[in-house]
Design brief:
The complex is a heterotrimer of chains A (about 325), B (about 250) and C (about 290).
Chain A: H1 5-20, H2 25-50, H3 59-76, H4 80-103, H5 107-127, H6 129-132, E1 138-139, E2 145-146, E3 149-150, H7 154-176, H8 179-189, H9 191-196, H10 201-227, E4 229-230, H11 237-250, H12 255-272, H13 279-293, H14 298-315
Chain B: E1 4-13, E2 16-26, E3 31-35, H1 42-49, E4 57-62, E5 65-66, H2 72-77, E6 80-82, H3 95-102, H4 111-116, H5 119-138, H6 154-167, E7 172-176, H7 184-199, E8 203-207, H8 211-217, E9 220-225, E10 228-233, H9 235-240, H10 242-249
Parallel strand pairs in B: 3-8, 3-9, 6-7, 7-8
Antiparallel strand pairs in B: 1-2, 1-4, 4-5, 9-10
Helix pairs in contact in B: 3-5, 3-6, 5-6
Chain C: H1 2-33, H2 40-56, H3 61-84, H4 92-114, E1 130-132, E2 135-137, H5 139-161, H6 163-173, H7 175-180, H8 185-211, H9 217-231, H10 237-257, H11 263-277
Antiparallel strand pairs in C: 1-2
Classes of the chains: A mainly alpha (about 325), B alpha/beta (about 250), C mainly alpha (about 290).
């Protein structure tokens, strides 16, 4: 109960909100954005927060999933679920091949390599117009059907993406609290010591890289169907940075921190709509301010304060 | 046959020779200490034995396996583990989790099983928790299991590293200056802990500056000076060796 | 064919000069503080944009250029003072994110001040192309190369010969030791950011008459400069210069021979290749971890 308590609370909120406000734009449309971002942030956090391996190219796997589904379903009429599997296979292969050489690197070099990977894949989306439709993107992507239940309204997409997010959080919580999860945290804590306790650090880093790529890929596939349109813009370097921002905003190495960051950053543009031109500026300012003043993130710092307060209350 | 035999081990950093052609054997069950002045190459030797550094020449045979060809995690899998001079505790975890990482080799749950938390995972978690608590108990730290590692005092962090290493049930434990920075009481505790570890059947390799402790617990002592073997023998033999006295008093 | 190759090399060296200066700026900050400043490219953009707008406001050209450099240096100093210094003991990941945040912030500010349009600067002198065979060289190309060479030599002189330069190098070796021998580490870091911003502004001003600029031009330039610094081996200043020139030439040849659409990808493929096979950079050496 203690381990999954947060998940149950979140699931409860998700269901209640969906039932109470089925017509609200903020719930259904913004909700889907929030859930997508939450899946991406949670998956990135496994790699970045727990294993301590920065990635500035996570959007690439989101894109690989999205384009696989988009191309296969709209051009070749493949069943969406099969297309999603194909996307998983592609993201899995790409991440598996790149994992070892990339994760051998540390610090700035790792940042550079993941960034380079993301940019190369993004440029491919833009340039390979015979396949991807180029900068204009691909449209006419069909919707999906879940066990005969056509996902054809905003509300239905709300349910689908919400369930995906809850699944993703569940997986993340499971991994964190397990042998491979501890091995990851050990890699983060001290790579030499991890090795000396028998952890094959290269392998465990590669595994989590693949897992996080796969989760992002699923999100990408669903995203393509939900939007019915994909273009390279959604998978750019900037989006990768946004994902990093979500993770650090909530607090590294906290699954719910990542969710929290995703919620906050997905809502931000809605509030900033009024001063559209300031969006970039405010983004940068938030990112800097959080890292300077609250390097542990907003969510982690706050929840720590609350726990301390509660503990203090018990003691006195 | 010795458990560990080192032959012709050399390590050069650029033009500097850190270890110069070292030969020695460690018998099963021994407490084998390596001493020497600062910069004698003791930690370098440990790093060579555990493949953190690659030797320039020589072999390290542990129970028939040449460790120089293996990676550190493979060496750990053979039953060799170590502690570090400048602590390498996982400060991002609790005490118990640190030691649970130590049980890595005694459990097998993989990423996929973990992700879906299959029933086997839950069973194994329980088992691992028990093993970790046992190791903490052995080091007298069971009451601290749930504390965050970064809140422990220095002396406890040193013990935590030992508990983590023991949780792997090693056959040989390399301890790099376990008593450095400890006060007198803690040092006494440490020497009895080392003896208990040895009594439980673990071969101990010890690098230590505290001569009182070394002479009290060791079965054999090896003296290094500028990466060369200066002397080797029982604590008494080494203490009486004129070469050692010269090196230490700096003639 | 040969002429075409020559043309590619000329434009490669021109663009490469900018990468070299940005890479050099990276290296200076990295050496002084172990921070990779992802906002380095924004210095180039701010230098160029300020020059364009000051000149557009009727200030005489040379004066506008000088003022633009000064503005950029002030931005660099502020970056150090308000974003980097408060997070002095932060981890690598944290500093990476802070400087990325700074780069986004500066880009956002530029967007507010100057809008989304693309701007150019007039060339320094009249544009009379010089023909070499059928390849052409603009006077501005020569200014870029000369300007870069002078800047690089001055930086070298600064670090090898002057007391301040040596003090900054000392900070890079051991910050505590440096402060113990009486070096004001914070001031040295400020100077490092100032010099680095200055190099960025110079690069921007030199090349904008050829390449044009806009509020988001700094991103790619910054990343390419980072590539240059890594190619040369992080921390090796002359390596960064060589890396920048090399990158410029490879990119220009690749764009000409393979496809111009993939121009930016080429740089990153090269850098991934280098990182995978020579993690210490082409001119750097791999160092092992201390335990």
């Amino acid at each position: 109960m203690r381990r999954l308590g947060g998940l149950y609370i979140l699931a409860f909120l998700f269901v209640i909100t969906g039932l109470m406000f089925p017509d609200s734009y903020y719930v259904t449309v913004v909700g889907v954005t929030i859930f997508t971002n939450a899946v991406l942030a949670v998956s990135l956090n496994l790699l970045m927060g727990y294993a301590g391996q920065i990635s500035l190219g996570h959007a690439a796997f989101f894109g690989l999933g999205a384009y696989s589904s988009a191309i296969l379903t709209s051009r070749y009429g493949v069943n969406p679920w099969l297309a999603m599997l194909a996307g998983l296979a592609l993201s899995g292969t790409v991440s598996w091949v790149l994992a070892r050489p990339i994760l051998k690197l540390k610090g700035h070099y790792l940042a550079m390599a993941t960034l380079g990977m993301g940019i190369i894949i993004h440029i491919f989306f833009v340039q390979a117009d015979w396949l991807t439709g180029g900068p204009d993107g691909l449209s006419g992507i069909p919707g999906i059907t879940v066990f005969g239940w056509p996902v054809n309204t905003d509300l239905r997409w709300y349910w689908v993406f919400g369930v995906l997010m809850l699944f993703c959080i569940w997986v993340s919580l499971n991994i964190v609290d397990s042998r491979p999860g501890r091995a990851l945290a050990a890699v983060h804590g001290s790579e030499v010591a991890a090795q000396m306790t028998g952890v094959d650090t290269a392998s465990v880093k590669a595994q989590i890289f693949v897992v996080s790529a796969l989760l992002a890929s699923v999100a990408g596939s669903l995203f393509a169907h939900q939007q019915a349109f994909v273009s390279p813009e959604s998978f750019s370097f900037f989006f990768s940075i946004e994902l990093v921002t979500m993770v650090v905003l909530g607090g590294l190495a906290s699954t719910f921190g990542a969710v929290f960051g995703a919620v906050l950053l997905s809502l931000l543009p809605e509030f900033l709509l009024v001063f559209e031109d300031f969006e970039v500026l405010i983004y940068g300012a938030i990112l800097m301010a959080i890292m300077i003043f609250l390097p542990d993130g907003l969510f982690v710092t706050t929840s720590r304060l609350i726990t301390e307060r509660l503990r203090g209350g018990e003691a006195s | 046959m010795a458990l560990l035999s080192v032959r012709g081990l050399e390590k050069h950093f650029g033009g500097v020779t850190a270890i110069a052609g070292l030969d020695f054997d460690v018998e099963q069950g021994a407490i084998f200490s390596i001493i020497g002045p600062n910069g004698a190459g003791k930690t370098t030797l440990f790093n060579l034995l555990t493949s953190i550094y690659t030797p320039s020449a020589g072999t390290v045979i542990f129970d028939g396996h040449d460790l120089t060809r293996l990676k550190p995690f493979q060496i750990a899998a053979l039953g060799v583990t170590r502690t570090f001079q400048n602590l390498q505790v996982f400060l991002n975890m609790t005490v118990l989790e640190n030691v649970m990482v130590g049980c890595h080799l005694r459990s097998r749950c993989g990423m996929i099983e973990a992700a879906f938390r299959l029933p086997s995972v839950i069973r194994e978690e329980k088992k691992v928790r028990g093993m970790a608590l046992e190791a903490l108990e052995f080091c007298g730290m069971a009451d601290m299991a749930e504390r965050a590692a970064d809140t422990l005092p220095y002396g406890m962090l040193k013990k935590l590293e030992i508990a983590r290493a023991l949780a792997a049930r090693p056959r040989m434990l390399l301890m790099d200056e376990p008593a450095a920075g400890l006060n007198d009481t803690e040092t006494v505790n440490m020497s009895s802990l080392i003896r208990e570890i040895s009594a439980s059947g673990v071969t101990v390799l010890l690098v230590e500056h505290n001569m009182g402790l070394v002479m009290k617990v060791s079965h054999r002592v090896l003296v290094l000076n500028y990466g060369e073997l200066l002397s080797q023998g029982t604590p008494q033999e080494v203490q009486c060796d004129p070469k050692v006295i010269t090196a230490y008093l700096g003639q | 064919m040969f002429d075409q190759l020559l043309q590619f090399i000329i434009s490669g060296i021109t663009v490469g000069s900018v990468y070299a200066l940005v890479g050099l700026g990276f290296t200076i900050i990295y050496n002084a503080s172990d921070v990779v400043n992802f906002a380095q490219g924004e210095f180039v953009m701010i230098g160029a944009m300020s020059a364009i707008f000051l000149y557009g406001a009727g200030i005489p050209y040379p004066l506008a250029l000088a003022a633009a450099v000064a503005i950029t240096v002030v931005v660099g100093l502020m970056l150090e003072k308000f974003a980097v210094e408060p997070a002095k003991n932060a981890s690598v990941v944290t500093t990476i994110i802070i400087t990325i945040g700074a780069s986004i912030f500066l880009r956002g500010a530029a967007l507010l001040v100057w809008g989304k349009d693309i701007y150019g600067l007039p060339p320094f002198t009249k544009d009379v192309p010089i023909s070499i065979g059928s390849a052409t060289l603009l006077p501005q190309n020569i200014y870029v190369m000369l300007g870069t060479a002078v800047a690089v030599l001055l930086v070298r002189y600064f670090f090898d010969r002057t007391m301040t330069g040596k003090a900054i190098m000392a900070c890079s070796c051991n910050r505590r030791a440096a402060s113990l021998v009486g070096i004001n580490v914070n001031r040295m870091l400020l100077i490092a950011y100032g010099v680095s911003a200055l190099l960025g502004a110079v690069a921007g001003i030199l090349v904008t008459p050829i390449t044009y600029t806009s509020y988001d031009a700094g991103v790619m330039l910054g990343l390419k400069g980072f590539c240059a610094a890594i190619l040369g081996g992080m921390g090796n200043s002359m390596g960064a210069v060589a890396g920048g020139l090399l990158l410029g030439i490879i990119e220009s040849l690749g764009a000409g021979i393979i496809s111009s659409g993939y121009k930016d990808a080429i740089a990153f493929v090269v850098i991934l290749g280098v990182l995978f096979f020579r993690p210490g950079g082409l001119l750097g050496r791999a160092d092992s971890e201390r335990v």
